[in-house]
Automatic annotation (TrEMBL):
Residues 4-115 form the Sigma-54 factor interaction domain. It comes from the Bacteria. It comes from Vibrio harveyi. This is Sigma-54 interaction domain protein. Keywords: ATP-binding, Nucleotide-binding. One of its GO terms (biological process) is regulation of DNA-templated transcription. GO terms for molecular function: ATP binding. PROSITE patterns: SIGMA54_INTERACT_4. Pfam families: Sigma54_activat. The lineage of its organism: Bacteria, Pseudomonadati, Pseudomonadota, Gammaproteobacteria, Vibrionales.
Amino acid sequence: MVPLIGNSACINELRNKLKKYARCDAEVLIQGETGVGKGMCARIIHKLSNRHSFPFVEVNCGAIPSGLIASELFGHEKGAFTGAISDRIGFIQKANRGTLFLDEIGDMPPELQIH
């Protein structure tokens, strides 16, 4: 069961698409304006997928300063830069075998978006 409220043709179509995407192992790009439910759709896909028992990691890329986004995503080793007082795993590793939801990815520097 896809936990969406409503029974319109559009909501039923969305339910079917979310089920379909959950069965897929490929990356999924969810587009839409702020507040339309992209995060909710990502969580539903995760819960319906084979990855449901692994972490769901949500990252608001727009809330992380551009100078820190690479370190936050990929992690860093102690001493890699001023202030790196210990090793830190990144969000990508935290989501290992689960789902990494990058919200507001358009706010990331273009050179990081290609990774």
